[in-house]
Write a structure and sequence with these properties.
The protein is mostly helical and 306 residues long. The protein has one domain: Na+/H+ antiporter like fold, CATH 1.20.1530. Helix content is 74%, strand content 0%. Helix 2 packs antiparallel against helix 10, helix 3 packs parallel to helix 12 and helix 11 packs parallel to helix 14. The longest helix is centred in the last third of the chain and has 26 residues. The chain is globular and about 50 Å long. The relative contact order is 0.19.
Length: 306
């Protein structure tokens, strides 16, 4: 249980610092925007590149990844279907589907994997899957649905190549696939820049909570509630059903896929929503509610399957 509580405590402290920065106005009226842009355009691409460039891509072929991919697709499909029927719009549906299925595998998943599962590498499958496939796909959809003139075909086809986050992921994968070894002096500046990503995202998220009121209110309430329920209840249930029933996982392997599926929505989803100026309330409040709700869920899973 210590890993669950430690991971959440670290995140809560940094978000609280961001909230008080916003409350006191120390970063000015554009502080949140600057932090979001810094994370999206510079720090997160650097972090993704350095993470993936040295990753063992063989985990993509593991059964755990198949469970992760199927569970992610299942809950995202539920949100997309309901959102389409209710006419929520492509941008809101994309952000809502991400909040329903995209887990906080980095700054929360790694410490929980260490303390609860005993092995940080057990979050690698979902981390790679999200960075290599889910992120470029979702950001391409958001790019193609920006308001303005119709997008030419050539720009549609090259959208992932012009998105900083997608470029960081895909470039890192390319380096890992070729087996190239980047000299440490060349990696150090990227590591330093990449280390700004998580705190920048958390601080910006904390600033955004200033004056936001109680969550799940207003016209976005159905989408917020739906994404939160899918994330905290639906995704771990699907992962358990697929892992135990279809892939016959048991012990640590089953615990790993269910625990990672039960992680809350990642804070960087708010960065995406803010950067594209779409469904910001949905992202902010879904992340907040799923983070709060995931604490008892993760403790229950650890007690039942651990």
């Amino acid at each position: 249980m210590q890993g669950v509580l430690t991971g959440f405590a670290v995140i809560a402290v940094v978000i609280a610092v961001g909230y008080f920065l916003g409350l006191r106005g120390h970063l000015g009226k554009d502080g949140r925007t600057v932090l979001t842009s810094l994370a999206f355009n510079v720090a997160t691409p650097a972090l993704l590149f350095t993470t993936l460039a040295g990753a063992d891509l063989s985990v993509i072929l593991s059964e755990r990844l198949l469970v992760t991919a199927a569970g992610t697709a299942a809950v995202a499909a539920v949100f997309i279907t309901i959102g389409a029927l209710r006419g929520w719009g492509a941008g809101q549906i994309t952000i809502g589907a991400l909040c329903s299925s995209y887990v906080n595998a980095g700054n929360l998943g790694i410490p929980i994997a260490v303390y609860v599962l005993g092995d940080a590498s057990l979050v690698a499958p979902i981390l790679l899957f999200q960075q290599i496939i889910v992120t470029p796909l979702a950001l391409t959809v958001l790019d193609l649905n920006r308001p303005g003139e119709p997008t030419p075909l050539w720009r549609r086809l090259t959208t992932p190549l012009r998105n900083p986050t997608a470029v960081g992921s895909l470039t890192g994968v390319a380096v890992a696939c070729t087996g190239l070894t980047i000299p440490q002096p060349a990696l150090e500046p990227l590591n330093l820049i990449g280390n700004m990503s998580v705190p920048a995202v958390l601080l910006a998220f904390g600033i955004s909570l200033r004056g936001s009121g109680l969550p799940a209110r207003g016209d976005n309430r159905p989408a917020i509630v739906l994404s939160t329920v899918l994330k905290t209840v639906g995704q771990p249930l699907v992962a358990w059903g697929l892992g135990a029933g279809l892939f016959h996982l048991h012990g640590t392997e089953l615990l790993a896929v269910v625990v990672t599926a039960a992680l809350p929505a990642a804070q960087n989803l708010y960065t995406y929503a803010s950067q594209y100026r779409v469904a910001e309330q949905l992202a902010r409040e879904s992340i907040l509610l799923s983070t709060l709700a995931s604490v008892p869920v993760l403790i229950t899973i650890a007690a039942l399957l651990g």
